[in-house]
Predict the structure.
Amino acid sequence: MNTEKLSNRLEAVTNYIPSGARVADIGSDHAYLPCYAVKKGIASFAVAGEVVEGPYQSAKKQVKMEGLENQISVRKGNGLEVISPNEVDCITIAGMGGALIASILEEGKSKLASVKRLILQPNLSAISIRSWLIDNGWELIAEQILEEDGKIYEILAAEKGEPLKPYKNTEKGLLMGPFLMEQKSAVFQNKWLGEKKNWERILLQLEKAAYSNETEKRKQELKRKIKMAEEVLMQ
Ligand code: SAM
């Protein structure tokens, strides 16, 4: 991967950046995404935010090497603290767990007033992000699922607005994604077949364990999830 040819995963993230946007890419190891977005004319300006020294230095080096210092500001800091109020209108956060992405958004809420679009790519637990979006008045506008190098990734794009009704109150929608459930692509089916098998394996082990309230609770939860996956996959 380089700034000419991104991974399919990161390129898919850039496809949701509105043309001419001012973007902050948080967790911007190597600054590949902002460099690509600026060079392709998708973003007019970008902040590359990184909390860890090594990746921050890599991002700085990359931006300097590309001669993009006038359009990309590389900053070291935690989450959204690297951006000033009203500085950007689009935020990308990719390649982290969903719970971490949600906590970055939660802690940085005060910086979101000028932000029109969030593009989030959790490596796992997209449910944490969907829940955060609903609780904070962001509407999911698109979702994508893709497989690359044997791993499955989800991309969630959101704008300020009323959360979509169909998934607002359903665990299924929160867990699997309202758009992804609708599309039911081959990758989506593979993902949830795999999860279902995993849940069934854990359930089998728990069936052999000694009785306890905790085990019983876990078993019921697994059964509920297995049923949910079956319903969606069979539809
Ligand atoms: N976004 C790139 C991608 O998707 O390929 C890099 C993903 S890398 C696995 C995650 C990066 O996020 C790491 O460089 C890590 O240091 C950074 N990171 C983690 N938590 C962060 C936070 N709270 N604020 C800024 N960066 C963070």
Observations:
- The pocket of S-adenosylmethionine is lined by residues 10, 26-29, 49-52, 55, 78-79, 94-96, 104 (CB under 6 Å).
- Residues 186-208 form the longest helix (23 residues).
- The radius of gyration is 19 Å.
